[in-house]
Amino acid sequence: MRFSGRFKGYNLQKFQKDLIAGIVVGVVAIPLGMAFAIASGVEPEYGLYTVVVAGICISLFGGSKYQIGGPTGAFVPILFGIVMQYGLENLLIAGFMAGVMLVLFGLFKLGKIMKYVPKPVIVGFTAGIAVLIFTEQIANFLGLKNVEKHENFHHNMFEIAQKLGTFNGYAILTAVIGLVILLVSAKVMPKIPGALLALLISTLVAVVFFPDRMAMIGSTYGDIPRHLPEFQFPELTIDKMVMLFPAALVIALLGGLESILSAMVADNMKGSKHDSNKELVGQGIANMAAPLFGGIPATGAIARTATNIKNGAVSPVSGVVHGVVVLLVLLVFAPYASHVPLASMAPILMVVAWNMSERKEVANMLRLKNADSFILAATFVLTVLFDLIVGVATGLLLAFVFFIRRMSEATRIHNQESHPALAKAAKREQGTDPSVSMYSIEGPLFFGSIDSLESSLLEHVQKKPKTLILLMNKVHYMDTSAEAVLVNIMNRIKRHNGKLMIVGLQSQPKELLHKTGLFHKIGKQHFFDHHDEITG
Questions:
Q1: How far apart (Å, rounded) are the C-alpha atoms in residues 133 and 118?
Q2: pTM of structure
Q3: Is residue 159 packed enough to be buried (19+ CB in 10 Å), middle (13-18) or exposed (0-12)?
Q4: Which of 1, 317, 383, 448 could, after both became Cys, cross-link 408 (CB 3.0–4.6 A)?
Q5: Separation between Cα atoms, residue 275 and residue 297, nearest integer Å
Q6: Using CA atoms, how far apart are residues 264 and 302, in angstroms rounded to an integer?
Q7: Buried residues in 234-243 as b, exposed as e (16+ CB within 10 A)
Q8: Residue 335 pLDDT
């Protein structure tokens, strides 16, 4: 059998590698799928449905050979907020809408644009999400009773503080056992999935030695069914789509960004190259399919993708295997999941949060004490105190403002009155009574730099020079705002019967002046490739 594309040269030996990698990742995905679902405010089985349906679709239709998809920590605060405000049914509709958006993003070739999100913004909101996930698990770790969940961070912290007196010693012991196993297994047995090991052992200890002494998955959420839910198309109405559009857009943007980041991590590990636009389409198909079977929004999971690669995956088949493994476990062992204590899930999510916090990157950037430090800090604080939308939007706005400022500072305008070409140019253009000015311009001319352009040139034009020579061989970009300033300068000079002469105009500015008609208005004879042509 011959294969092409991502499966070119595929054979039985490679399938064996994918099978092993898929089984390992599937085992890892089981506790994480349930944990992320619970943290998102939905029942644990919805996380498993997502791993099965979305995970398989992402592997089959995505643009990375090694991508593993499913529920992730980045989605937790967003999904929890949607569930709190709109309910589970509307979360599934928002996820379906996000899938449609992701497909459109891919079809319109927006994959590369998502790579341009500044690093301080990514690190800031990732660290903020990590704090939210970690603190949300404090109540389960301590076994606190009657803790109400709120949308705002400070309200949740106040609620936990009020209920500290209701702690459960058995829950704490269970959680500590799980945490110790997680930390020790990562060093002693790195090839064994620590999350699953911690979940199984801590659950076994709780069930054998102190059963029914703490909150379990079954007592809190009910039994997990041993099957996928029936296919059901979401009830889409105009009113619901309008109401859920902002939530769906956030899911799509965050899902697209994280999936591409995960694919880039896979590329770095394997020396491969993913297709960003195809990856968005694959993510979109997955997020359209998952809600049809009760799945919540999914994206590329960086840790699981890395685990997939480390265990020898060579193609998307490993991702399909991982979904099938979770499905088989769901069909066979679902009833036993009801006995898992919530305290066993808490340390798993806390360790996930700790690992995704990017604490070293945060510390390094904050030490710089520059614009990037400020952007990171603002994104982090606003993500924690308000939500991801506010944090990321503010971070992007700050990054834009600082970028414009830096770019405007890169534009320099120098007076060249001492230039030897002036005398010859003046004699040639204006006879015996010259009034000539020459300026060299360096850097981009755009809306952020027009202030320096106006203050340097328009002010000098007031002195009524007969000829203004602009050396623009170091200007590689110009926008219409800068072009408008040139129009103003030309008009003022013409009112005094003077001339505007431009030297060394580069291709992009020249194309712009042709399109706006300014090139014709200035006159072709007043454009020169080199200043020697003026003085020759």
A1: 23
A2: 0.80
A3: middle
A4: 448
A5: 21
A6: 9
A7: beeeeebeeb
A8: 85
